[in-house]
Amino acid sequence: MNTRLNHALRLGAGLLLATTALTASAQALRTFTGSTANTFAANDDNVLSGLNIGFGVNFFGNSYTLLNLSNNGNVQFNSAFGDYTPFNLTGPTGNPIIAPFFADVDTRAPGSLPTTYGTGTLGGFNAFAANWEHVGVYNSQSIFNSFQLVLIDRSDTGAGNFDFEFNYTLINWEAGTASGAPSGGLGGTAARAGFNSGTGTFLELAGSGINGAFLDTNLATGLIHNQLGTPFDGAILAGRYDFQVRNGTVTVEPPPTSAVPEPSTYGLMASAVLVGLVVVRRRKQAAAR
Predict the structure, then answer these.
(1) E strand segments, 178-279
(2) pTM of the predicted model, to two decimals?
(3) How confident is the model at residue 55 (pLDDT cuts 50, 70, 90)?
(4) What gap in Å lies between CA 239 and CA 28, rounded to an integer?
(5) Contact assessment for residue 248 and residue 64, using Cβ atoms and an 8 Å cutoff
């Protein structure tokens, strides 16, 4: 298996990260009893507020047992918002956010499945999953994405500690027509993936906001073709991006050397951050709904 660094990650914590290119895996999305127990009724920009995570998490020094689930590919821990055009996650957002694929999901689209979510146990740990599996995009038809966010209780390592994963198996669109994309989900203001503490500590996957970067057709930077970190169970798969949160701080565990047979073909890198960027959020006209 050839390995190489395919994701330069911009982050505000100065971490060193490694990524490898792997063969795409249909198993990247996690399934466990309870993970899809609840259905978010078909909608465009709605948010479910105050969902119980099932355990407590410490995210950048603040403790939470509830979160807000946006149909548009992200969760927030303070105020709820349903923004559909993704804004930069690289500056203070005013609201802690974890976003596996922040873009204009529309589960009313013909053929789309609804977003689901639920709690249960994964590998013996309490877990919460939000599943955007086979979801459509605003004002386009017959084009779908499948991705997931999983939060995993790791209080066995310390109070409030947890892991979270971004899992991807299908990325065919990147923006809706209200975000400037022609019908078909390509172009416009492209999706973003990452997290932000709310006060400016952040990470964005490289390719965020760049047209074509996350798509399955992009063999170099497509989300399903790469991975990051080492999951709690060691299940390193293409399309899986794992983060550990310990004492409120997000870290990434590099893959074991056994997973990288040619160390010279990948690297560790971190880059400087731009902060205080202006956030521009576009609004859909009410008449278009």
Answers:
(1) 192-196, 202-204, 226-228, 240-246, 249-251
(2) 0.84
(3) very high
(4) 6
(5) no
Neighbours of 289 (CB within 10 A): 9
Q: 204 near 214, Cβ under 8 Å?
A: no
Question: pLDDT band at residue 25, thresholds of 50, 70 and 90?
Answer: low
Nearest CA to 75 out of 94, 96, 60, 106 is that of 96
Residue 82's nearest CA partner among 52, 105, 51 is 105
Evaluated on CA atoms 169, 170, 176, 179, the torsion sign reads positive
The percentage of residues in the chain with a pLDDT greater than 70, rounded to a whole number, is: 80
pLDDT at 201 over 50: yes
Long-range own/partner contacts, residues 159-162 (CB < 8 A, 24 or more apart): 159/56, 159/58, 160/56, 160/57, 160/58, 160/63, 160/247, 160/248, 161/58, 161/244, 161/245, 161/246, 161/247, 162/55, 162/57, 162/58, 162/245
**CB contact set of 224 (below 8 Å; sequence gap of 6+):** 24, 25, 28, 168, 169, 170, 171, 216, 238, 239
pLDDT digits (tens, 9 = 90+) for 163-180: 999 999 999 999 999 999
- What is d(CA 89, CA 74) in angstroms, rounded to the nearest whole number? 12
d(CA 270, CA 251): 13
Q: What is the mean pLDDT of residues 257-278?
A: 28
- The answer to whether the beta carbons of residues 62 and 96 sit under 8 Å apart is yes
- Residue 198 pLDDT > 70, yes or no? yes
Tokens 């997290």, residue? 195
Amino acid at 208: S
